[in-house]
């Protein structure tokens, strides 16, 4: 589906949007619910990634296809490895077979797991014969993906002696590890995270508990971007959000102050207001803790005509696509003076934006959603716009509710 997007006729927007639950929190809680059936989950994400996770958890034997969902791939690997009597082949989209999993498989094998590669060493698909994992200590590199660490932590309380992880090297995407530990605390599992050591205590059973998933902060980023590009006075209320979030991407509220957007928290909501059009000519941000909002931020900067120097982007190359190359290509088509390395991105300030460019999305939901707010500055096309369903199936409907003109072309 190719969409043509143009701005609302009135760019002084005042509206409310209710966003679906965080896919990261949802996929963690779905796994925990499979281990502790007394857990009830409210405001579960309606994303494809949460749906494949739910389906995957029900399978006992045969092929489990998790499509593009990185968290489902990594979390289910640890889950099936630790489930006696289950035997599956875990696979996904073509891109998923290019996203590395060796660090997690090596760690699980050290704990006693039986996992073999079906095609390429280090990459899905993988065959998993569930076993009782007998070891309780393992070390693993922490600089490639935090999802390997979260995967191990999620199954840890069900291991006979719990788990002790030693993290080697610089730890990337730290807030996602803390989110995992935070959810374990909420269900009543004890853990500690000191320096590079994480310990989780065993917990055989748990009493009934209801957990509420906060709405998705990465999805909120697209509305921060919209407000930053709108007239002063624009106001969008997003729900259901809390000031104290488990999601690292809530740092948006701080970051977008530099783009003239103020955030005010109310009861389970955040109000975004454009309060000034005066912004710095260039900003510098380290996104090692919040990699999923890199695309949103660079597009906001381009729309505002300001420059940015983004660092800590080393994980972007192994996400749904090589996001650094994709940004260089697509922003380049729009006329942006952009350059990238393996872990940084530089955008120079510029005023000109090319019109009616078709943005390619590379099977990456965030390419589609990050570029959409640019319609406030120029009309553009988004190719394969249905990709948004990976995390935010209602995205285009919500854009229409803001009076953006969204037309199938
Ligand atoms: O644990 C999670 O829910 C996630 C961790 C991050 O991945 P990395 O740790 O691979 O950076 C993030 O990019 C992804 O969207 C979700
Ligand atoms: C990187 C992402 O997801 P995952 O790694 O779970 O596929 C994302 O949603 O931006």
Automatic annotation (TrEMBL):
Domain of life: Bacteria
Principal location: cytoplasm
Pathway: Metabolic intermediate biosynthesis; chorismate biosynthesis; chorismate from D-erythrose 4-phosphate and phosphoenolpyruvate: step 6/7
Entry keywords, A to Z: Amino-acid biosynthesis, Aromatic amino acid biosynthesis, Cytoplasm, Transferase
UniProt-listed Pfam families: EPSP_synthase
Location relative to the cell: Cytoplasm
Reaction it catalyzes: 3-phosphoshikimate + phosphoenolpyruvate = 5-O-(1-carboxyvinyl)-3-phosphoshikimate + phosphate
Keyword Isomerase set for record: no
Annotated phosphoenolpyruvate binding sites: 23, 70, 99, 147, 323, 366, 390
Residues involved in 3-phosphoshikimate binding: 23-24, 28, 145-147, 173, 292, 319
Residue ranges annotated for the Enolpyruvate transferase domain, each copy included: 61-399
PANTHER family named among the record's database cross-references: AROM/DEHYDROQUINATE SYNTHASE, PENTAFUNCTIONAL AROM POLYPEPTIDE
Complex formation: Monomer.
Family per record: Belongs to the EPSP synthase family.
Function: Catalyzes the transfer of the enolpyruvyl moiety of phosphoenolpyruvate (PEP) to the 5-hydroxyl of shikimate-3-phosphate (S3P) to produce enolpyruvyl shikimate-3-phosphate and inorganic phosphate.
Name of this protein: 3-phosphoshikimate 1-carboxyvinyltransferase
Organism (species): Arenibacter antarcticus
């Amino acid at each position: 589906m190719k969409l043509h997007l143009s701005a609302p006729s009135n760019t002084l927007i005042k509206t409310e949007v209710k966003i679906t639950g965080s896919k990261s929190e949802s996929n963690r809680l779905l796994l925990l619910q499979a281990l502790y059936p007394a857990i009830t989950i409210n405001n579960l994400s309606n994303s494809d990634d949460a749906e494949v996770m739910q389906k995957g958890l029900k399978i006992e034997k045969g092929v489990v296809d998790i499509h593009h969902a990185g968290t489902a791939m990594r979390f289910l690997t640890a889950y099936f490895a630790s489930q006696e009597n289950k035997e599956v082949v875990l696979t996904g989209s073509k891109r998923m077979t290019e996203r590395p999993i060796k660090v997690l498989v090596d760690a699980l094998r050290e704990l006693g797991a039986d996992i073999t590669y079906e095609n390429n060493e280090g990459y899905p698909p993988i065959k998993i014969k569930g076993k009782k994992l007998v070891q309780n200590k393992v070390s693993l590199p922490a600089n490639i993906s935090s999802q390997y660490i979260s995967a191990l932590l999620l199954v840890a309380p069900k291991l006979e002696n719990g788990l002790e992880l030693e993290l080697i090297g610089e730890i990337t995407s730290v807030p996602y590890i803390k989110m995992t530990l935070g959810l374990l605390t909420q269900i009543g599992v004890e853990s500690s995270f000191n320096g590079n050591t994480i310990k989780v205590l065993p917990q055989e059973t748990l009493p009934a508990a209801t957990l509420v998933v906060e709405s998705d902060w990465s999805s909120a980023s697209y509305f921060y971007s919209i407000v930053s590009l709108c007239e002063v006075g624009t106001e969008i209320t997003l729900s259901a959000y809390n000031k104290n979030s488990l999601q690292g991407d809530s740092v948006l509220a701080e970051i977008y102050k530099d783009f003239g957007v103020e955030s005010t928290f109310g009861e389970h909501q955040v109000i975004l207001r454009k309060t000034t059009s005066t912004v710095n000519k260039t900003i510098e941000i380290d996104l090692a803790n919040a990699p999923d909002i890199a695309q949103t931020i660079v597009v906001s900067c381009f729309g505002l005509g300001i420059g940015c120097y983004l660092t800590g982007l080393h994980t972007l190359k192994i996400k749904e696509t090589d996001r650094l190359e994709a940004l260089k290509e697509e922003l380049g088509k729009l006329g942006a003076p952009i350059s990238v390395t393996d872990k940084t991105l530089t955008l120079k300030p510029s005023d000109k934006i090319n019109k009616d460019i078709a943005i390619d999305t590379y099977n990456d939901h965030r390419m589609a959603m990050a570029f959409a707010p640019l319609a406030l500055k120029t009309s553009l096309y988004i190719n394969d716009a249905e990709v948004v369903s990976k995390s935010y199936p209602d995205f285009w409907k919500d854009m229409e509710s803001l009076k953006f003109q969204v037309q199938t072309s």
